[in-house]
Amino acid sequence: MKAPVETITETELGLNLYARGKVRDVYSVGEHLLVVATDRISAFDHVLATGIPGKGKVLTQLSLFWFDFLKAVVPNHLITADIDQYPADLRAHFAELEGRSMLVKRARMFPVECVVRGYLSGSGWKDYRASGSICGIPLPSGIREAGKLPEPIFTPATKSQDGEHDENISFDEMAARIGKSNAEDLQSLSLSIYRKAADYAAERGLILADTKLEFGVHAEGIILADEVLTPDSSRFWPEDQYEPGRAQSSFDKQYVRDYLESIRWNKQAPAPALPDEVVTRTQQKYLEAFRLLTGKSLVL
Ligand SMILES: Nc1ncnc2c1ncn2[C@@H]1O[C@H](COP(=O)(O)OP(=O)(O)OP(=O)(O)O)[C@@H](O)[C@H]1O
Ligand SMILES: [Mg+2]
């Protein structure tokens, strides 16, 4: 029988911890960073008590695929994900790091989330319904939930601090925070990335409804950092099931959110644990997203 897939929800590598995000544990390694995607899963801005076995590997492998795919459009933070090229003092942790980590350039991160939307969903749909616009961008009336926008739009948001929600901001607000020239560069890079990825996804039967990107500055200029075009940062919808006018099923935390709604969790800490059935189906969804996008199966 195949060994069960290990679930790693927290790492303790005995290194200098740089940051612990909702999903990633980030360590300082010399002048670089070691980004370890754990199997933690968050929903409604809370990390849940149960992890999804192998999820961190799916996110890492998918980000690696996209970093490579996009390298002509934008430089990125990756140095290597090959553990044999990691500094020798990380050797004791290789088993834990393999497949779910990347050695990256440490960037000065811009304190904004760069979101591009081609379709109306999530907070974009909410804002549109309330005001007819998103991030100050007026949109034609009469677009339905999950409807396609006339063209992709750049809708930045603040990066939430612990426990708070991201807040959509206008381009001018973003420019006031990081400077106009940086804001213009991030907008243009984000739209190029979205277009290229959405065209590719369409060839594979998937709609890229929206995506969130994070950029930073390194010696050579602006680089794409964190994760890219994963089910945690993007909405992918199967084209053959697409039907505007309702919420779409996607490859993210659908089952998790549905389950949490069904038990009427009040969305306050502590977040509940997930039943095995929800864990298994969620794991399958992440693996399916990887397979559909890359054409390869990931063995966990
Ligand atoms: N190359 C890099 N240099 C510096 N910081 C980075 C780099 N890549 C990622 N980070 C930061 O490391 C952290 C990764 O944690 P994680 O992805 O779990 O994020 P989070 O901010 O908690 O949540 P979310 O990504 O869902 O908004 C983030 O704060 C991210 O900005
Ligand atoms: Mg992140």
Itemize the secondary structure elements and their pairings:
Elements: E1 16-20, E2 24-29, E3 32-37, E4 42-43, E5 46-47, H1 55-69, E6 78-80, H2 94-97, E7 101-105, E8 108-109, E9 112-119, H3 122-131, E10 133-134, E11 137-138, E12 148-154, E13 157-158, H4 171-178, H5 180-203, E14 206-218, E15 221-225, E16 234-238, H6 254-262, H7 276-294
Helix pairs in contact: 1-7, 4-5, 6-7
The structure holds adenosine-5'-triphosphate and magnesium ion (MG).
Walkthrough of the structure:
The structure is a single chain. By secondary structure, the protein is α+β, with helices and mostly antiparallel strands. About 30% of the residues lie in helices and about 25% in strands. The strands form 4 sheets. Strands 8, 9, 12, 13, 14, 15 and 16 form a 7-stranded antiparallel beta sheet that branches. A hairpin with a 2-residue loop joins strand 4 and strand 5. Bound molecules: adenosine-5'-triphosphate (ATP) and magnesium ion. Magnesium ion (MG) binds next to loops.
